[in-house]
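Figure 2 data, in text form.
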Amino acid sequence: MPRVPRLASQQVQEGGLNLRRQQTQVTDETFGGGAALEKTRRAASGLGAASSRLMGQAINSAIDIESRERQKANRIANTEVEAKLSNRETELLHDPNRGAYTRKGKDAFGLPEEVFTEYDKTLQELTEGAANEDQKEFIRQRGLVRKAGMNRQLNQHMLREGQKLDEQNTRALVSNEINAAVKNAHDPDRVKSSLLTQEQAIRAHGQDTGKSSEVIKSQVLESKSKTHFGVISQLANSGVDHEEVKDYYAKNRKDLTADDDLRIKRVLDQTTLQGESQKLTDKILAKTPDLSDALSQARNIKDPRKRDEVVKRVKQRMADDRLAKRLDDERNFDIASEAIEDNANMDSIPKEVLANLTPKSKRALEAQAAMKRNGLSPVTDANTFYELEQLAGTPSTRDKFLTMNLKEVKHLLSETDFKRFAKMQVDFKKGSTKGMDGIESKTSIVNGALGAVDMPFGANADPEDKARANQFRREVDRLVVQRQDLTGKKVTNEELREITENLMVELVTDKGIFFDETKKVFEITPEDAPLIETDSIPTAELQKIRNTLRDRNIPVTDENMIAMYLRRLNQITGR
C-alpha cells in the first residue's frame, strides 16, 4: 500500500493514503451557490455598509462563476449526447448489414416504426444518464429534431422503393400479358383481354407516378404494338392461311409503331410467298409424280421469288416422298427376308408385303431362298464389289451409296464384305470417314488410270468392258496386298500409281504382218510370250532405268532397257 510522508515532532513519518472513493454530484453548492451562498449572505448582513458592499460584489461574482461553470458542464454533456445521437442515426439508417437503406421493395414498408422504436431506446438511456433538467430538455428537443429529419429520409426511401416496385410489377404484368396473347394467338377473346389489362395497368401506373398523358399514350401504343407483332408472327408460323393473317394486320394496323409495322410487312410478305408457293406446289405435284416434269412446270413461273420457292418446295417434297418410299421398301424387305430365313420359300412372304416389293428386292429374296434351301453361303461378285466401292469412294456418287439398301445385294457379297460396306454406310451417316481409309484415293487413282487409256467402266459400261475394268481392279488389289505383306506398311498413293501405270503397259503378245496383237500387263496369262517396246515403258520408269544403267556402266540400249524393265515388271506384278 502506498505510504504518504507526514510531519510529526519535527520528523517526517509515513502514513497510509486514504483511497476511499466518494460519490461526486454536481450541485449549486459545487460552484458556490445554494446553501453556501445563503450562509455568506447572512454573514454579510451583520457588517457595516462598506463591508456590505464588498460582500455583495463577492457574492455576485460567485454567482457568475456558478452560471458559467454550469453552462460549461451542460455544453460538454450536450456535445457528447449529440455525438451519440448522430452515431445512432447513422447506424439505424446506413449500417451495411441492418440499416434501413438496405431494405428494398416491399421490405421497405413500415420502416419508420421499426427505426424509431430503436431510436427511442437510445433517447431513454441518455435521459436517464442526464445530470440535470437542462440536459434532459436538451435531449428531448434534439431527439424531436433528429427524428423529424430521419422520418423525412425514411419516407423518401419508402417512396422510391414503392415506385420501383410498382414499375417492376407493372412491367411484369404487361410482359406476361403479351406472352399470354401470343401463346393464345388463335383465341381473339384472350388477345382482346390481354390488350385491355395491359392498357389499364400502364395508365394506372402512369397516373400514380405523375407521368404526362403523352408518355402514357406512347407506352400503351408500344405494348399494343408488341402484342400485335407477336400474334401475327405466331399465326404466320403456325400455318394459318396467309389471308387470315393479312386480315388481322389490316384490323390492328392503327395500333402499331412504325418499326413494328415495317417488320410485320416483311413477315406478311414472306407468309404470302410461302402460302402461294405451297398452293402452286400442291397443284403441280397433283398433276405429275415425275420430278423433272414438276421442276419444268415450276421453272415456268414468271415471278422469280415465287419460282425459286416453288422449285425448292418441289425438290423437298419429292425428296421426302423418296425417303418415305425407301423406308417402306426397306421395312417390307426386312419382313420378307425374315420370312425367307424361317421357311426358305417365297410363298411364306405375306401377300400385302410381296405386292409392294420392288423387282430388285424380289430377285434378291429369291436368291436368298435358293441359298437357304441348298445350305450355301454368299460369295462376293466382283462386279458388285467394285461397283459399291466406286459408289462409296467417289464423292459425286456417295449419296447414292448412302441411300441404297445393301440387303438387296447381300446375296452377292461374302459375309465379311457385306459387313464392311454396311459399316461404311453407318459410319458415313454418323459423319465419320474412318471406314473410307484409302478407298477414296484408291478409287480416284484407279479410275484415273482406266480413263487415261480410254477403258470404259462404271454403270454405263457394257458387260465386256465392265468385266475388263474389274479384272484390272482385282489385279491392283492383289498387288497392293502383296506389297503391304512384304513391307508391313500401307501403300502410298505414289506406290499405288506406280502399280496402276505398270499394269497398263501395252505388250505385244503376237507379231502380225500388218497389225500386232497386244494386251495390257494385267491381262497377260502364263501362256502369253509378250514382247515390249521402249515406247511402251512409262516415262518415269524409263528414266529410272537409264540412270541405273549409267550408274552401273552398262550401255543404255533398247535391249538393255527392255531387259531391265521386264525384270522390274516381274518384281512389281509377279508376271
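Caption note: Residues 1-26 have pLDDT under 50 and may be disordered.
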